[in-house]
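Z., the sequence and structure:
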Amino acid sequence: MACCENPGDVIASTTVPDSTLTPAAPTTGDDSVAPAPAYSAEDYEIEIPPPAAADDAPFVDRLARIVNEVYVEAEAGIWRDGYQRTSAAEVAELIRAGELAVAYLVNGNSNSGSISNKSDTNDDKHNDVTRSQPQPRPIGCVCIKKLLAGEEKGEFGMLALDAAYRGGGLGRALVRFAEDLCRGRGLTTMQVELLFPTAFEHAFKARLQRWYARMGYGKVRLGSFADDFPCLAPLLAGPCEYRIFEKRLV
């Protein structure tokens, strides 16, 4: 990750590797959540969109908006005012790199834009014809990457769902998609990171850690956020622990 020369001027375009989202925020002091529909595998699709989707501005903008709205809640009090988790430019870059999986509802989707694909006609192979291919309306996403070369380890982050679809199992499905993708690429371990403020108890983060634990993730160490992301550390509102979690895939 490139370091920002002046973090205070580029808050909207910075990135933090912390992965969230769980279902909707609890309505009580325990792990209960607001009522939400339960989804089966037939109700949604998760896929790596084609690189051309990065040029679909409404599609990219909606994904960036979903992520940023999630992190306002998920990391409340952790960052300085004005911080945003991602930008449309970063989302487009991840799509082009094949590092962003996107969730769509199979039924009831409205098209948020279109992707233009060029193909040859039968009459003139050199005459490009643009065909519009609708891109389904996204409701969530997760970033999936391979860690350092030589390590058989993957990482997921920027996990987010539209508020209307939380609590029905889609967040868990996105994590499983990331795990299956990395397992299929021969990776043996999955990693995820969480930032925990140390000056106060962050109920959402505590609940999120329990959610990851139920999926088999255990804390393996504390990292140094300032060392790994020196351009982002000045944007923190206070001291934080940078907790690293792992799960064996095989």
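The longest helix spans residues 57-74. Residues 1-35, 109-132 have pLDDT under 50 and may be disordered.

Let me know what you think.
H.
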